[in-house]
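Students often ask why we bother encoding 3D structure as a string. The short answer is that it lets us treat folding as translation between two languages. Here is a chain of 733 residues written in the first language.
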Amino acid sequence: VILALVDEGPVLIDRFVPGGALLRRAQSGAPGQAARLAELLKRRAISPTGGNIQQTDLFEQFTKLMQALARKHPLLLFADDLQWADSGSINLLFHLGRQLTGHRILLIGAYRPGDVSLGRDGDRHPLEPIVNELQRQYGDVRLDLSQVEGHDFVDAFLDTEPNRLGNEFRQALFRLTGGHPLFVVELIRGLQERGDLIKDESGCWIAGRSLDWEILPPRVEAVIAESIGRLPETMQTVLDIASVEGEVFTAQAISYIQIIDHAEVIRLLSGPLSKLHQLVIALGVQRLGESRIASYRFRHFLFQKYLYSRLDEVERAHLHEAMGNALEVLYGEQSHIIALQLARHFEISGLITPAVKYLHLAGDNATRLYANAEAIHHYHHALDLLQTSPETPERNILELRLRVALGVPLLATRGFSDLEVGQNFERAHELAREVETSAELFQVLSGLKNYYDLRLSLRTALELAEDMLSLAERLQDRMLQQFACHQMSTTLLYMGRLRDSLEFRRRASELYDREVFRTIIFQLGFDPESAGLSHASWAYWLLGYPEQAKRLSQEALAWSEELGHPFMIGFSKVFAGQMHCYLRDVPMTRKLANETIKLSQELGMTFWLAAADCLIGWVLAEEGRMVEAMPQQQQAMTTLSMIGAELGRIQTVPLAAELTGACYQQSIESARAIEAKSWELRASLSQCRLWQRQGKAKEAYTQLSSIYNWFTEGFDTPDLIEARQLLVELVSH
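And here it is in the second language, the structure alphabet:
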């Protein structure tokens, strides 16, 4: 298993499996395999933290690992409680499910259809379309293990009278009552009496606007109160504590809080409370290191609801704090598994610092699984909580780390130039200067610098890049120096300081260690070498070296493909597509643009998608399809403007300008100012064609021959071919 994990799924280590614990087990049971695992962990230890991999790679490696294990032994994979799973986990299940054919793997997923039917955050539950797609691919794969009689009773009782109560209402009713006849009847009666269920004009029962499931009907409350009230005080206390944890609860946590032997708690829960009073159901035992955690569920949600509602605010705060402490002790180093649960307990108990800590961990968990919307929600929640506490140096450090973490999913979903991205990094920069933490400061400077690059605030971006370089040199950190030189190079390129840009590119390349980055690329989420090659290709084309530019672009594509990192592959394709647009290579530009569009849609990269749309607009224009080209470019420019990507938007202007005409002399002067020989040649071509039509052949020949004779390569490119042809025509005149 360990060798398969190292070979097929190295990025799963410390995401799905703790590396340290795995190494200790390997050293005691499989020393021959431990050496390779130790080497992998050692390489990771020397790399900076905070990077991440793409979701597609995480899924692919998990699938390859399962397939490798299945070649040795048949596998049974069981995923429980999928109704609570985040989007990233559900997508992993779907990816694996589609790769089962031909492998000895049985994948079983259990979920509560009632919970799934309720959706999530007002939208369709993410599991629902996945189940439907798997059923479409494999046929009838669903087994209904629900309480069929209970569902039948709910439907039968509701349908004794005309109604327009849909599936969502019926599922919510069943979830609350479990199909228990008394609870169903009394809950419906209570809803009718309060006006939460009303009759429409045709006499059918419908849900009112103020439907409130929170209020227990008196008779239901009385029945539950009687069931609970007859219990001995010890059992009632056990259930009170259990209700604080939730509908599903842990025997060992109750034992910790009540300070009684956990065997006694299990005896009560699995004995009289389950078999005699039928208030709880045993779910099973989970191994957590050397410990076992026994899980139970209230037989009906209304039991938990009643027990929790009878606790006053003081009791709730006390028990939530105790529950948080108990679960922390139980889960120990693996408390991140239940980070969101712990955050809830500490928040309700009024303990802001641990609540923020676990919301941060919950956000990190979601980020690793590419559930970016959930990650952003958790980080925002933590920041909101933090604002309620007094401003202290410790609080500011927590906020800084939260904002650095928030930057990752924000960038992934909204791009470098989104307004919130800028505001987040601006606040982080302010905090970093106050608390003087070098590691976070470098990350903040990098995020801000990229933001100002795309916003075309290039002087500010350059100052930030210079700060990065100064910090990296002060820390004498080779990898940070490499990143800083790369950042200097890109901003100088955007400023038109082409030769200065290439000098910093040279320094960055000298500091780059391919073997190191090959092993840590999926942790960092970015490779400055392939990005640097892409930027350098633009610089060389502008300077008038199209063959060298094309070679560098090809190197960037090849290296990103070799690394196998999807984001960097997309990055290189966008830049290569722009390069081939400069070279006026329509087929290659179309190919790269379409590949970028496909990749961007899969990964939700708005900026790359808009950039690729611009390239398609240019392709359409080159093919003479002007009616299609202009709307295509306009839509791309609108998208780039919406996300604040001024640099990307400006880069579309030369394409549009060629369609509508331009001030050629101004373009020539601008190109000369930055030594952009290729732009000077293209603008001169346009101007000289105009002069040819105006009868100024001599002036045209003098200007065009001057720039044409400067070139030393690329004579098979369209611009130089057309320049040579025009010179011949001008001589003949």
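Translate back mentally: Residues 639-662 have pLDDT under 50 and may be disordered. Keep this in mind for the problem set.
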